[in-house]
């Protein structure tokens, strides 16, 4: 941790208030004490960095075969671009309309997008953050299909009315050349042919345009003569059309599951009609109709049979069958089942030229929730292993945590155990989408993201350097029995679905201890080991937590309340190697209410645990008198003390995971000291009749005695609430109760009179109270495993408005004092290795230290933040964060070498407050809360990093650090790289001589304004984009604008100078060649007479 540098201090010197210096207690800040604060508003700026995950609700796809970049458009107007591993980019159309089609300007670094709001946009991909250069909004026609021929600047646009318009992609202006539907179809046809569903030019003749109408009519249009050469009619609607590369045949896919192959010069009837998945009747009749073939592609190879790839077309009797992609190669037909419905697919080929042998090598299949790339070059068509983090949503994300600047050895350790989990059977070839270059960022600190999922799995991700790669996956559901009969399934469980879903987690990066809480009121403690192990019996501890309704739920500030007799709120039932279902105490029959029954059953068979995270202890809350246990609302683990603490709306429990014992089990109201309005004392669950006060000996080891485990029950069983969803009254009762919302382990001064530091636990509640518990730890070593731990309640430290979200502790200079931890060691290592690691590890922290300076306790709630001087417990700083909204997430983080509080409010504001003075440093209206998913997953981390789940499948990372924003351009990857366009196919001598090769077309002459005239102004409106020259000139202002303008001008000037230099060199070479030939001719005929010539 960096100390504050006095030279950097410009303002914000904060003196302790006089109220805190009124009592001259040891460790209390005096009036002349100052904490030098170096953080200023200039250190903060908010911006998005990168978006990871699968594009949510994809709708279209395109591929640049030269740049090898894949683009995916979505139903929300998003645009995601992918290259090699680590190269990905996110853009957004402002309108939010769905993207219906994408077209690359191949090897030009540009992309055209067409949206459902009848607008088309030209994106510039030559910059790290792509921008729109031009937009064109159609007013009278609805866009249905677009086609941009290779190396052409004229874009064909088909409409719902059946017309085709032509756009110059350089200027984004409409040509006066229009193909009207009534001229394309036969004049004798009276019915409208429907929307344009396909446009393509003949691979061998650019002057012939193939137009497919929805009704089944296909027209070959002569662009020069402005008339239809041929018309092809079929009874079934058309979905797609594909050319043979020689331009003599094309294939159509239809709504009845048929494929028709047409010879260009024979429009009367199809050359072939096949139904790939139809059953062929024996009597020679037409096969039964199948589902529509939504798309077909026809690709040729030099050596071997062509490939025909199609989606859809399955028989109607295949009810419930998953979506399939069919690959027809010669006489073999392969049907590939997909996990999700197919949105689109593209066949990747070696050449971008449509008039050459295509040589297909892969198929990219865009599914509703996945992206699959199939290798066409290997037997069985294996898929490529995806390098992108597209599996975030494999199971829905239920919680998320972000750790920046982790210990450097963590990522290699997680990767080493995670690499053994990889699937086999992938293609041996490299990932074919390999364009772009990585960014050249300077940030090198390790970052880890942990996601918890609905199926109980936990994924660790390497998030360093703006990338994301899965490191390791942990399946917590393995601990429990999955098979359960219908008669055994509880009818009033906490959750109907996803009983293993992760609710919250606590992770200590230094010790690698992991603690997770699930929705079925269970907590699992994990240790990290590099060795596999077989656990014969999973250690289990059952905890009985209940609420006393006769007791006072929460003290009211300034009010006097009386309490019932002090009765412990809960009891425990710890077990070792016993079934969680006890016939003596557990009841699961209809004769009586459920009691002492956990929601899940821990597996009884041996558990084989691979290297990685291995179960240390399972803790389950049990049913109490017919009431299910309440979900866990807060959780914390401390490796130095060997403790796990968790809480819910009933109270809190502290578990010693080393001794596998329950130490403390209190109702929330019992945390208050006698000086509080609610007089409750903490009681040990081990000795319920022991008088309160002082330190409670609460760990006699594991004992299943009924007398020891059960506490006196309250008479208020009738008031006990139920989790039935039909009861609104009980839900109000539950909400009004004071839940435990936050924990923080620390070493501080438990009481005002203390001058010695000792281990403490800060407890925050949903009604704004912060209580302190003092811990009494036994000596380290073997005594730690034998001697008991005990607690003492120290009363209320401070009260705030709203529920407590986060807490922290600063030293006298403003440096954060993190919870103590134990360095990691392998629990399955040999005794010698364990002993060596213990010698290397620092000793356990002493229970008390003398001569310590003052401390500052930092507390942030849903409404306000306070800083309290310790040990005087005087509030020296207070800041009301919001009056009309509430804070969803708050954290104490490090930015630019100093500490601050970061907050995310429900009204969308992101704020930072300095420490300890709570000066506002940043307040940006960023993102209003539109989905509880954002509230559940938003988290801050150190060094100005934050993230949230922006959709069910995508993580959005943001930064609030000015330094990161300044370096963002360098850190981002590049999409466009200079690549030579492959040479055009050789026409051959005879084809060139007799005109048998590809026929070119002067589109400029045909579609230009001089020939075609101007298009109607009312047809479409041209809108300069923010990335265009007009947009740049309009948006650029100040110094940044001047720099941008200068850079653009230099780029343009350099480009024009380069073009001029090339032209000059070509002209000089031509002149020199002409001069040489002229000189040779002169010498040849110099002395000859005219009649000798």
From TrEMBL:
**InterPro entries registered for this protein in UniProt:** Lethal2_giant (IPR000664), Lgl_C_dom (IPR013905), LLGL2 (IPR013577), V_SNARE_CC (IPR042855), WD40/YVTN_repeat-like_dom_sf (IPR015943), WD40_repeat_dom_sf (IPR036322), WD40_rpt (IPR001680)
Q: Looking at the keywords, is DNA-binding present?
A: no
How does it sit in the bilayer?
Peripheral membrane protein
**Any one GO cellular component localisation term in the record:** SNARE complex
The V-SNARE coiled-coil homology domain covers 1028-1088
Here the segments flagged for biased composition (Basic and acidic residues) are 705-720
Q: Which UniProt keywords apply?
A: Cell membrane, Coiled coil, Cytoplasm, Exocytosis, Membrane, Phosphoprotein, Protein transport, Repeat, Transport, WD repeat
Pfam families noted in UniProt: Lgl_C (PF08596), LLGL (PF08366), WD40 (PF00400)
Q: What residue spans carry the region label Disordered?
A: 558-599, 673-728, 826-853
Q: Where is the composition biased (Low complexity)?
A: 571-584
Q: Which CDD domains match?
A: R-SNARE_STXBP5 (cd15893)
Q: Which family does it belong to?
A: Belongs to the WD repeat L(2)GL family.
State the protein's name: Syntaxin-binding protein 5-like
Originating organism: Nothobranchius furzeri
User: Which classification does the entry list for the species?
Assistant: Eukaryota, Metazoa, Chordata, Craniata, Vertebrata
**Gene name per UniProt:** STXBP5B
């Amino acid at each position: 941790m960096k100390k504050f540098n006095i030279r950097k201090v410009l303002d914000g010197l904060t003196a302790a208030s006089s109220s805190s210096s009124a009592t001259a207690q040891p460790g209390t800040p005096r009036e002349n004490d100052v904490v030098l604060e170096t953080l200023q508003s200039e250190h903060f700026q908010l911006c998005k960095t990168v978006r990871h995950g699968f594009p949510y609700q994809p709708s279209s796809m395109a591929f640049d075969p030269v740049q090898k970049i894949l683009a995916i458009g979505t139903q929300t107007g998003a645009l995601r671009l992918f290259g090699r591993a680590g190269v990905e980019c996110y853009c957004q159309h402002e309108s939010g309309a769905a993207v219906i089609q994408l077209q690359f300007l191949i090897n030009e670094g540009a992309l055209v997008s067409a949206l459902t709001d009848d607008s088309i946009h030209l994106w510039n991909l030559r910059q790290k953050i792509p921008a729109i250069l031009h937009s064109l909004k159609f007013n009278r026609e609805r866009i249905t299909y677009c086609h941009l021929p290779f190396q052409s600047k004229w874009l064909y646009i088909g409409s719902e009315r059946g017309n085709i318009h032509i756009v110059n992609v350089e200027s984004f202006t409409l040509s006066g050349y229009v193909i009207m539907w009534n001229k394309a179809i036969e004049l004798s046809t009276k019915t409208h042919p429907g929307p344009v569903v396909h446009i393509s030019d003949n691979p061998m003749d650019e002057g012939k345009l193939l137009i497919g109408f929805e009704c089944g009519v296909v027209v070959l249009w002569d662009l020069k003569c402005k008339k239809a050469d041929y018309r092809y009619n079929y009874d079934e609607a058309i979905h797609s059309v594909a050319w043979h590369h020689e331009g003599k045949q094309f294939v159509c896919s239809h709504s009845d599951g048929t494929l028709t192959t047409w010879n260009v010069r024979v429009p009367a009837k199809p050359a072939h009609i096949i139904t790939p998945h139809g059953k062929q009747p024996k009597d020679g009749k037409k096969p039964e109709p199948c589902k529509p073939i939504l798309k077909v592609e026809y690709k040729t190879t030099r050596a071997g049979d062509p490939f025909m790839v199609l989606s859809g077309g399955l028989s109607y009797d295949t009810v419930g069958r998953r979506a399939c992609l069919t690959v027809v190669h010669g006489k073999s037909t392969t049907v590939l089942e997909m996990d999700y419905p197919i949105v689109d697919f593209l066949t990747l080929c070696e050449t971008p030229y449509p008039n050459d042998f295509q040589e297909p090598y892969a198929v990219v299949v865009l599914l509703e929730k996945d992206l699959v790339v199939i290798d066409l070059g290997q037997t069985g068509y294996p898929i490529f292993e995806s390098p992108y983090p597209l599996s975030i949503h494999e199971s829905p994300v239920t919680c998320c945590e972000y750790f920046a600047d982790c210990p450097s050895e963590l990522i290699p350790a997680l990767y080493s155990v995670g690499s053994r989990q990889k699937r086999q059977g992938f293609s041996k070839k490299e990932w074919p989408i390999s364009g772009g270059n990585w960014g050249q960022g300077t940030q090198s600190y390790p970052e880890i993201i942990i996601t918890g999922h609905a199926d109980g799995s936990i994924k660790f991700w390497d998030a360093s350097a703006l990338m994301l790669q899965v490191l390791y996956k942990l399946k917590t559901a393995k601990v429990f029995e999955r098979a359960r009969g219908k008669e055994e399934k509880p009818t009033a469980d906490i959750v109907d679905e996803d009983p293993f879903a992760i609710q919250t987690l606590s992770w200590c990066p230094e010790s690698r201890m992991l603690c997770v809480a699930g929705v079925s009121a269970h907590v699992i403690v994990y240790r990290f080991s590099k060795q596999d192990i077989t656990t014969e019996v999973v250690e289990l501890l059952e905890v009985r937590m209940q609420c006393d309704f006769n007791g006072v739920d929460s003290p009211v500030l300034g009010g006097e309340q009386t309490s019932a007799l002090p009765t412990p709120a809960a009891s425990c039932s710890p077990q070792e190697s016993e079934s969680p279902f006890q016939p003596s105490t557990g009841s699961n029959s209809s004769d009586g209410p459920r009691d002492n029954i956990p929601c899940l059953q821990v597996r009884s068979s041996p558990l084989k645990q691979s290297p990685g995270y291995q179960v240390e202890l399972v803790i389950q809350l049990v049913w109490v008198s017919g009431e299910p246990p309440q979900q866990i609302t807060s959780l914390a683990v401390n490796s130095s003390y060997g403790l796990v603490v968790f809480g819910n709306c009933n109270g809190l429990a502290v578990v010693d995971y080393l001794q596998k014992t329950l130490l403390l089990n209190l109702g929330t109201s019992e945390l208050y000291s006698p000086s509080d309005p609610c007089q409750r004392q903490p009681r040990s669950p081990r000795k319920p009749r022991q008088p309160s006060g002082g330190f409670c000996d609460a760990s006699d080891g594991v004992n299943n005695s009924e007398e020891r485990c059960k506490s006196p029950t309250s008479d208020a069983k009738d008031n006990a609430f139920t989790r039935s969803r039909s009861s609104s009254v009980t839900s109000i009762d539950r909400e009004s109760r004071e839940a435990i919302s936050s924990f923080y382990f620390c070493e501080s001064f438990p009481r005002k009179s203390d001058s010695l530091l000792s281990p403490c636990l800060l407890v925050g509640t949903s009604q704004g109270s912060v209580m302190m518990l003092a811990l009494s730890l036994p000596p380290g070593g073997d005594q730690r495993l034998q001697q008991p731990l005990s607690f003492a309640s120290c009363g209320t430290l401070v009260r705030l408005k709203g529920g407590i979200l986060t807490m922290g502790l600063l030293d006298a200079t403003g440096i954060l004092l993190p919870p103590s931890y134990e360095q990691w060691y392998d629990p399955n290592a040999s005794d010698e290795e364990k002993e060596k690691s213990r010698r290397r590890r620092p000793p356990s922290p002493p229970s008390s230290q003398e001569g310590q300076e003052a401390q500052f306790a930092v507390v942030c709630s849903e409404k306000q933040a306070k800083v309290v001087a310790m040990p005087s417990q005087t509030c020296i700083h207070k800041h009301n964060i919001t009056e009309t909204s509430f804070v969803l997430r708050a954290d104490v983080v490090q930015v630019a070498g100093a500490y601050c509080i970061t907050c995310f409010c429900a009204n969308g504001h992101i704020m930072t407050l300095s420490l300890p003075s709570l000066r506002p440093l940043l307040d940006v209206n960023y993102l209003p809360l539109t989905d509880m998913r954002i509230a559940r997953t938003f988290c801050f981390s150190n060094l100005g990093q934050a993230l949230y789940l922006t959709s069910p499948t995508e993580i959005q990372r943001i930064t609030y650090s000015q330094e990161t924003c300044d370096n963002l351009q360098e850190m981002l990857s590049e999409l466009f790289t200079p690549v030579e366009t492959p040479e055009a196919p050789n026409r051959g001598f005879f084809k060139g001589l007799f005109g048998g090769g590809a026929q070119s077309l002067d589109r400029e002459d045909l579609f230009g304004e001089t020939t075609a005239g101007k298009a109607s102004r009312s047809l479409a409106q041209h809108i300069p984009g923010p990335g265009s020259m007009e947009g740049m000139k309009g948006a650029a202002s100040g110094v940044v604008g001047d720099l941008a303008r200068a850079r653009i001008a230099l780029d343009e000037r350099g480009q024009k100078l380069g073009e001029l230099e090339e032209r000059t060199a070509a002209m000089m070479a031509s002149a020199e060649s002409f001069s040489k030939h002229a000189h040779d001719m002169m010498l040849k005929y110099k002395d000859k007479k005219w009649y000798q010539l």
